[in-house]
Design goal:
This protein is of the alpha+beta class. The chain is 31% helix and 33% strand. It contains four helices and eight strands; from the N terminus they run ββααβββαβαββ. The chain has helices spanning 20-35, 48-63, 113-128, 143-152; strands at 4-6, 10-13, 68-74, 83-91, 97-104, 133-139, 155-166, 169-179. It has an eight-stranded mixed β-sheet with strand order 1-2-3-4-5-6-8-7, with helices on both faces. A hairpin with a 3-residue loop joins β1 and β2 (10-13). The two termini are 23 Å apart. The relative contact order is 0.15.
């Protein structure tokens, strides 16, 4: 897997524990916004040692080929993280699939940056990792996530009833998939 990708405006990087202070800033700034959609988000993650542990595990999983998380920033200011695209449960063999997740700084939401970053990362996974299918799961009330998935060409396959617990509430989610060759241009 590639550790770094570039799109027209963005730099996407897989980060390790040395980047924990930048990630703490990102989560501190966006905690309330992300808590609406992100399962297992805890204020404990805002502590430097907890973030270092999270990032070390994240980076190890990437080295093992199980997952990858690209944090993205503008090329002109790489030290300011504005979002992330992650792929987990990467399967090879007969499945050649994974699941995608994404997040963005609330101040940059709605500008098309997550779409640009996701398209870049998806394109890389399809070509470099020879994946066949990428799945997305979005809470039925997460309109920005739904719009992004559909803009990228993901096809809604159905509803997963009460499939994720966010802030103590079970949420119904739409199940989406994108097959290699279906990624829509921006």
């Amino acid at each position: 897997m590639k550790f770094e990708l570039k799109s027209e405006n963005l730099l996407l990087r897989a980060l390790n524990e040395e980047s924990a202070p930048y990630l703490c800033k990102f989560y501190e700034k966006n905690y309330d916004y992300l808590a609406l959609w992100e399962p297992n988000l805890s204020r404990q993650l805002l502590l430097a040692d907890a973030m270092k542990g999270f990032m070390a595990a994240d980076f190890k999983n990437m080295l093992l080929g199980k997952s990858i998380r690209y944090w993205f920033s503008f090329k002109s200011s790489p030290e300011i993280l504005i979002g992330a695209i992650n792929f987990q449960n990467i399967k090879k063999g007969a499945f050649k699939s994974c699941q995608i997740g994404y997040k963005i700084d609330e101040g940059f939401s709605g500008l098309g940056l997550t779409c640009e970053a996701a398209a870049c990362a998806i394109s890389s996974l399809f070509s470099d990792e020879n994946l066949h299918r990428i799945e997305a799961i979005s809470a039925t009330n997460n309109i920005p996530s739904i719009k992004l998935a559909e803009k990228l060409g993901f096809v809604r396959e159905g509803i997963n009833r009460e499939c994720v617990n966010i802030n103590g509430n079970w949420k119904d989610c739409y199940q989406y998939s994108l097959l290699n060759g279906e990624l829509k241009g921006l």
